[in-house]
Design brief:
The protein is built from 13 helices and twelve strands. With 464 residues, it is of the alpha+beta class. It has four domains: 108 residues, no CATH class; 95 residues, PAS domain (Beta-Lactamase), CATH 3.30.450; 66 residues, Helix Hairpins (Orthogonal Bundle); 154 residues, 2-Layer Sandwich (Heat Shock Protein 90), CATH 3.30.565. The strands form three sheets. Strands 2-1-5-4-3 form a five-stranded antiparallel sheet, with helices on both faces. It has a five-stranded mixed sheet with strand order 7-9-10-12-11, with helices on one face. A two-stranded antiparallel ribbon has the order 6-8. Strand 9 and strand 10 form a beta hairpin. The radius of gyration is 47 Å and the shape is elongated. The relative contact order is 0.05. The model has no long low-confidence stretch (mean pLDDT 77).
Length: 464
């Protein structure tokens, strides 16, 4: 294009010079030299007039594509990625237009990919269980996901562009951010959050790399359940140690007394040996319950699910506990509300697990019901999917504040009375885990001095 433009102007210039020379020679031959200056002016005027139109045409021909390119570049800068221009004429202009259009299409594809990646990143961050907050060097929030809003109790739609300290007014978090800003390495710390509820939050703070927009990213992780499980583990270890220590201390004391001479006294010997036997049974029951609970909590209780007659399981359980109930002059009552056929009260369960559930509930009822009390078991068809049954007693009852915790390991409402009647503190925990393993539910209700009721729902056999 450059050489074509040069050649066009050279041709025009040559034509202009030829015309000027011809006019000057003609005037000089016909009128003489005195009118030479006037001829020059006239020739220059004619030359300018004759060149004006070609120059305008050539300028428009070569400048027009540049205007189209300028307009296309402006459209792209305004966000109209993929905009194309159409230039005709010489091949150089067409090549330039093709190159521009290819560039525009490539930009459109790259920006579309960037937008897609950005949306994917937002979706990923939005679906994380961790809260994520990013803010710039001026502490104005650039991004926050839904989880961060839930942790820090703000609406993410209202915080973008606002300063972090304006949105989150929690001294512990700002102290963590201050300590993190003083170091070059990522900083991790755990705090307690007091807001709509008490939470334990692990905070990870990292500085974004230096660049056009340096800033900070905060990652929040809820460790409340982890801390709760850690406390349960510590309590479990402490309770196991205490439960093992008590009978072992009694056994050791009895043995030492017998060795010091009490073994010679027949009456004293029998009393101490009886205590040793009772405490040995208590240790044996505790170890069996611990092994059973560990097996259930391992997630592999090895249950053999089959159709079991709930009526038969209840009658067998009551037969096992009837002698103890008769000693305390307690009345055992059953109420089977079968809607159609006897088999309608069958459940899908493991036979051993079903026996363990009933034994623990009835055993507790017998223990905590005074003499002359009443223990009842009622079962019914809840719906087409579940069978319900309950174990009810007229015992001492459980305070309302303790009901949510009765299924915890070693939790005792009355620690002294529980040990007096010989409980291990694991029975209801085992029942809860077994019911869950059988895909059922359990709940407890109680009234002080009027008794306690445990209600269980288990799945019915499926009809083929």
């Amino acid at each position: 294009m450059f050489w074509r433009l040069c050649l066009s102007y050279v041709i025009l210039l040559a034509l202009a010079l030829f015309t000027l020379t011809a006019i000057v020679v003609y005037r000089a031959c016909s009128e003489g030299m005195p009118s030479f200056a006037q001829d020059i002016v006239i020739a220059a005027g004619l030359l300018f007039g004759s060149l004006l139109v070609p120059i305008l045409v050539l300028s428009r021909h070569f400048v027009g594509p540049l205007k189209d390119l300028t307009m296309g570049a402006r459209r792209i800068s305004e966000g109209d990625y993929g905009f194309k221009i159409h230039i005709g004429g010489v091949s150089e202009n067409q090549s330039l237009a093709r190159a521009f259009n290819e560039m525009s299409e490539e930009l459109a594809q790259q920006f579309a990919q960037l937008e897609q990646d950005r949306q994917q990143l937002r979706t990923i961050l939005g679906g994380m269980v961790e809260g994520v907050v990013a803010y710039g060097h001026d502490q104005r929030i650039l991004f926050a996901n839904e989880r961060a809003g839930w942790f820090l109790e703000f609406n993410i739609q209202d915080v973008i562009g606002r300063k972090f300290w304006e949105v989150v007014r929690h001294r512990a978090i700002h102290d963590v951010l201050t300590r993190a800003a003083d170091g070059e390495q990522p900083h991790r710390e755990e705090i307690d959050w007091f807001g709509r509820g008490v939470k334990s939050l692990a905070i990870y703070v990292a500085q974004l790399p230096d660049g056009p927009s340096p800033g900070t990213i905060i990652v929040l992780h809820d460790t409340t359940k982890l801390r709760h499980l850690e406390r349960l583990r510590q309590e479990f270890v402490a309770n196991v140690s205490h439960e093992l220590k008590t009978p072992l201390s009694v056994i050791k004391a009895c043995v030492e007394t017998l060795m010091d001479g009490a073994a010679e006294d027949v009456n004293s010997r029998e009393e101490f040996l009886t205590q040793i036997s009772e405490q040995g049974d208590r240790l044996h029951a505790l170890i069996l319950d611990l092994l059973s609970l560990a097996k259930i909590e391992s997630g592999n209780p090895e249950l053999e699910i089959e159709t079991i007659s709930l009526e038969d399981a209840i009658e067998d359980c009551l037969d096992r506990h009837r002698p103890r109930a008769e000693v305390k002059k307690q009345t055992l009552i059953t109420d089977f509300q079968s809607m159609t056929k006897p088999e309608s009260l069958s459940v899908m369960a493991d036979e051993e697990a079903m026996s363990q559930i009933l034994d623990n509930l009835v055993d507790n009822a017998v223990k905590y019901t005074p003499e002359g009390g009443e223990i009842g078991i009622r079962c019914w068809q809840e719906n087409n999917l579940m069978i319900g049954f309950e174990v009810r007693d007229t015992g001492i009852g459980i305070p309302e504040r303790d009901l949510p915790r009765v299924f915890e390991r070693f939790y005792r409402v009355d620690k002294g009375r529980s040990r007096e009647v010989g409980g291990t503190g694991l029975g209801l925990a085992i029942v809860k885990h077994l019911v869950n393993a059988l895909h059922g539910t359990i709940r407890a209700t109680s009234v002080i001095d009027h008794g306690t009721t445990f209600t269980i729902y288990l799945p019915r056999p499926r009809k083929d």
